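Quarterly update from the structural biology core.
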Amino acid sequence: MKIPVRNIYYLLCYAWNHVGEGETVDVGSEKFGGLVDLFAKVLNEGVSRLVARGLDRDYLDFHADFRGLKGKLDLATTVKRNLLLNGKTHCVFDELSYDVPQNRILKATLRSLSLVATLDPVKRRRTERLYRKLDAVSDVRLTASLFRTVQVHRNNRFYSFLLHVCLIIHENLVVNEEEGTAQFRDFRKDERKMGLLFQQFVKTFFERETDYRVNSPRIDWFGAEDSETDLRHLPRMQTDIMLRSPERSIILDTKFYSSPLDGRFGGERAKSGHLYQIFAYVTNWAATASSHDPEPEGWLLYAAVDVDFDYRFELVGRRIRVCSIDLSREWMEIEMDLRELVTERVRNRREPLLKGSREPRPSMAQPQRGTAARLL
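Predicted structure, tokenized:
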């Protein structure tokens, strides 16, 4: 599934909950040869901004020998090394330094990016210039554990956004230390990774852009009785997303597959396993819900490219929807499609629903400018 590079950036900004920070980098007016060019652009713009306003600093402990005292005397080391015989002491003192973990990560990522052969030459030159500007920062080997040492707070929140960029570069970059080269994996081909990204994007989007209460509850099997040991072997019904309002309860399961629908047997059908799954979720939730709660709906939301479908079913009295979001469209259109999914008129419960009906989505002739418009 070939999703446009720019749209990957918007998905990530939502998934990381850094939409505001993502707006500071204009990616809508530029064409990218690949994901590595996109991330180089974002990282270069972000580091340039940090250099212009001043890199983060913190007090670090330094150890050194002095004639006299500075900071705190390390008596044990002084005695052990017989420094007093030479009129010296070993001291520990604090100094403000740029050599903090977050800056080390930025510098190490810039160095690794510059090794990618497929990186646009103009972006590589800028990456190398920024790398040299961080001369007050140690050149370290980038590891996953280094990311865990960073402390992000309100005053350096922009670092959090850039560190997410650095982490995704680190996770997808294969560096050959001997040859001094690197290759960037296009994770758009990884259905598992993209599935998790799509799920987090949809969840954060609905949290930010709608009035629904959004969570991911676990659903218990209704009426399941047996020994504790046997019950543990029942599969967990862990929802991806649940949208709740006084009028609606929507159990939404996101899916990311290269072929969203089952094309066997001469037609396009909902995948049976997915349909059984969402039907089980809705049925068991309804069985345990309060009588005052809205009747739950079950949705299967598929990521798609150049495909658009929206099928509605009523199965044993349960409302099921199988629909798609075309991630190859312009971002404003994607945002409008998601809004329309949940803001369309809610049918009266007595209003009949065609079995297996397919409804066209409303016209987008007059789109409203929202978060996507700000990103673009």
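The CA atoms of residues 99 and 137 lie 5 Å apart.
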